[in-house]
Amino acid sequence: MWNSDLLDLDAYLDRVGFTPDPAADRATTLRGLHRAHLAAISFENADVRDGVPIALDVPSLQDKLVARRRGGYCFEQNLLFAAVLDRLGHEVTGLAGRVLLGRTGDIPRTHAVLRVDRRWLVDVGFGGGGLLEPLPLVADQPTRQGDWTFRLDHADGVWTLRSFQAGAWFPLYDFTEDPRTPADYGILNYYTSTHPASSFVGPLLAQRTDERARHNLKDLELTETRPDGSVVKRILTPEERATVLREEFGLELPDRATARA
């Protein structure tokens, strides 16, 4: 399903700077690879914003995220990661999430997430301050990852991922365990990358989360948010933005992406 036979695994591992330890157990390898991917490949929507079609086949993902050292959003990141995990012998099931970020109402399920080995929530493509490591699919079990703490709630067949921020449990997204295929993601990807109501077709976005903070770029505004709720904001010039994208997010974006205000 994940076309992992088309993946250049060695090139991917070199891109994220991870060497699997043959003596390590599967969970340890999965955690290390998850962290390595997040540290190396930032979330970004430059192609979506500029109207460049988003291809989800493995060779295209490999070319963009590995060879050209770009980032991507959830469909690109998690489908590439699914191919990697499948190639390494993990059981990977695609799921679809509803991005909440404190919102309520009729919100479509447009976020790709993964269930791995039937016991882990895996997500390297969430731009809203998501997991650093896989999270066990267990309800009401707060888990510390760096300075962040996450928890899953489960009710009526729906899981909700929450992050403890500013003294409260903040909902990030919910999801069910109904399997989704790459073809399903193709439809969701088309909507998310082209529909005027999609938040990804507007401003330039780049995001990465580390042990201590979420770093978010929205057009010319750079924000650093910590789990205690403290926020530091800075307005950049276009020249400063290009430097920040390169030095803080590890992204070499096309000139068209950085030239626009």
From TrEMBL:
The molecule here is called: N-hydroxyarylamine O-acetyltransferase
User: InterPro entries per the record?
Assistant: Arylamine_N-AcTrfase, Papain-like_cys_pep_sf
- Keyword Transferase recorded: yes
Q: Name one GO molecular function term.
A: acetyltransferase activity
The organism's place on the tree of life at top rank: Bacteria
Pfam families recorded for this chain? Acetyltransf_2 (PF00797)
Q: Which family does it belong to?
A: Belongs to the arylamine N-acetyltransferase family.
UniProt key word Nucleus: no
> Which positions, given as ranges, span the membrane?
none
- Naturally occurring in which organism (per UniProt): Saccharothrix texasensis
Q: List the lineage, top down.
A: Bacteria, Bacillati, Actinomycetota, Actinomycetes, Pseudonocardiales
Instruction: For this UniProt record, give its keywords in alphabetical order, as a comma-separated list.
Output: Transferase
